[in-house]
């Protein structure tokens, strides 16, 4: 994986196209806080784009999460440690307590997969904080793919990246189990739709 300095150098060579352009900065100016949700394997570029905006990141307590947490902090993020399998409830509750004037990043298929399958923790976070969930996905023109469960992708130098921000998904405060599943499936479907769209757009 990349060190923070190497990451900055690498990302500075990548041409990044956002749709809509400057969306995170716009939300910040308007004082709107959200939960950014993107697949674990795509986290580098979207995370890099929102650095310095006061966004908090939920990162696994697993061994690989230690390295990601260090890099994320060096890039300007505030970290909340936990996952759906280790310390997840405590981390989510900590996020809820810190919700004032804060946006969050969560990878809903992390930390161990299955790949591209949303886990219900993000729905719980949206429900308890009242923050809308913004689906985010990424297309890369050229990348290295790691032999990990998520096929983690690192953009190659001077490649192109297309980021798509989906429309915010608002989670009702009161939900039964079947309604939580409906929201989970809705987010998963949208993430997969914009993943396919971003892959197509980056080729053009």
TrEMBL record:
Coiled coil: 177-204
InterPro entries per record: DUF374
The DUF374 domain, residue ranges: 50-115
SUPFAM superfamilies: Glycerol-3-phosphate (1)-acyltransferase
Keywords for the protein's UniProt record, in alphabetical order: Coiled coil
Presence of keyword Ion transport: no
Domain of life: Bacteria
Protein name (database record): DUF374 domain-containing protein
Provenance organism: Candidatus Scalindua japonica
Lineage: Bacteria, Pseudomonadati, Planctomycetota, Candidatus Brocadiia, Candidatus Brocadiales
